[in-house]
Design goal:
With 135 residues, this protein is an alpha+beta fold. It contains two helices and ten strands; from the N terminus they run E-E-E-E-E-E-E-E-E-E-H-H. Strands 2-1-9-8-5 form a five-stranded mixed sheet, with no helix packed on it. A five-stranded antiparallel sheet has the order 4-3-6-7-10, with helices on one face. The model has no long low-confidence stretch (mean pLDDT 92).
Length: 135
């Protein structure tokens, strides 16, 4: 059976690099399903959940915004955040959400407001992925 090489990279590290059967990811215009021999594609990645199917088993990751490049045999995701669902610390993500929401109540400059908004989006994405996988 044909596979795809899925690589997920953040500014800090390569988070995931495996041969997979398929990938489902959150695009800015909706969910995308990628299979081997997919038509070449470049698109924006929305914050959400990536599902990598490998040998009949699903592996989930929370991802931030970024970009996706698809070729017939490779999916490369460049994102500002990527965490495997099993590695998400729900308590830490909940605390980060509370801190970000509290900071948004303060008077912030445009740059700081954007930074806090991004932190809030990251924590909410992690919480959504963790809670969906838990139940």
């Amino acid at each position: 059976m044909a596979t795809l090489k899925l690589e997920i990279v953040t500014p800090e590290a390569k988070i995931y690099s495996e041969d997979v059967d398929s990938v489902t990811l959150p695009g800015v215009e909706g969910e995308l399903g990628i299979y081997p021999m997919h038509i070449p594609l470049m698109t924006q990645l929305a914050a959400g959940e990536v599902c990598a199917r490998k040998s009949g088993e699903d592996h989930f990751l929370a991802v931030g915004e970024g970009f996706v490049e698809v070729t017939g045999e490779r999916v490369a995701i460049l994102t500002d955040m990527a965490i495997k669902a099993d590695d998400i610390d729900e308590a830490k993500a909940e605390e980060a959400r509370r801190r970000a929401e509290a900071r948004l109540q303060d008077k912030l400059g445009a740059d700081e407001h954007a930074t806090v908004q991004a932190a809030l989006l990251h924590s909410l994405t992690q919480l959504n992925v963790k809670r969906r996988r838990r139940g």
